[in-house]
Prior knowledge:
With about 150 residues, the protein is an alpha+beta fold.
Amino acid sequence: MKTRPYLLLFSVLGLLVSCTSPSDEIQSADAKESLGVDAVDSGRLPVFEFTEEEFDFGLIEEGEVVIHDFKFTNTGDVPLVISAAQGSCGCTVPDYPRTPIAPGAEGVINVSFDSNKRGGKQEKTVTLTANTVPNVHVLKITANVNPKK
């Protein structure tokens, strides 16, 4: 019975010591560096500057697949990394750079829209997730689809 309090005491001490190990601090510093947190802390950020954020395809025929390139420049101080690009539905498919965009460099988000089985006025979006502030950016496409008869 006397060994139980000592066992409990040593267990608690072991947990306290292991919570602040030097390897945790090194891993934390590595993670901070790889995520670019130092850049954010110092106010250095990548910045999307699009030539346009909305595009209207106008009148198209149902079944057409139309494509538009949204061009942008990273006007920030550090590389811009796009981690995801998601269309608002399966008919809207974005293609985006998978490599970092250097400060001052240009990039393109290629968006295709498949109008098959989509008649009338269409409004679709592409949501970009990047290492910018804010980290979500939305592009918009519209079209008026002339239905098949």
